[in-house]
Amino acid sequence: MTITLYCFRPVAGLPDASPFVTKAMVLLKMAGLDYVEDRSGFSKAPKGKQPYVHDDGEVVADSTFIRFHIEKKYGKDFDAQLSAEQKAVGWCVDKMCEEHLYWVIVHTRWMDDANFKRGPARFFESVPAVARPLAKWFIRRRIANSLWAQGMGRHSPVEVDALGMRDIEALATLIGDKPYLFGDAPCGADATVFAFVASVLSPMSESAIRNAALANANLVAYRDRMMQAYFPENAAA
Prior knowledge:
This is Glutathione S-transferase family protein. By secondary structure, this protein is α+β, with helices and mostly antiparallel strands.
């Protein structure tokens, strides 16, 4: 039975607007599992977020729990080639991207007016024109409140840039001259790292963080390598 992945939509050369959805896509592809995309399921998302999957009657929400589901149900060991120490580092890198760099990206995309117009404003095109300004204001306010509650929103833009650039430097150092995070073959954490590096490098946002990523040729090459392997249609675009 085909797996249904509930997602948003591709944007600015990215497989999906959400790095978490992109991560789930890569994990499914790494596992050799066929899936179909459904872009109409956000209102029914069990945790109020995407991605989530329907797999033979079972609903699994959150990209990390989707990974756990794939590992358990299909016996896929994404980290089979890694040592215990590498697995631990992979988990730490995964969570740096998801729990720290993610909020830098959100701040950069949504709080900067020019970047908002360049990127997230497109997400409101389906909203009736008369209601669009209010919808934009309301969602940006909700995101600003989330950023404040999480802590990233309490920093100045310059401080947010400084934090994001440390993440980029760490990723560039860890990858080094290797094809993937831990060597010649991708592991589970590569699905996450790729999703977030690609998001940072996307022209949807102009920022010091994007410039820092572009300045690291190994990160650009890593993004291109992963894109060619898992989304060749985007790589050719």
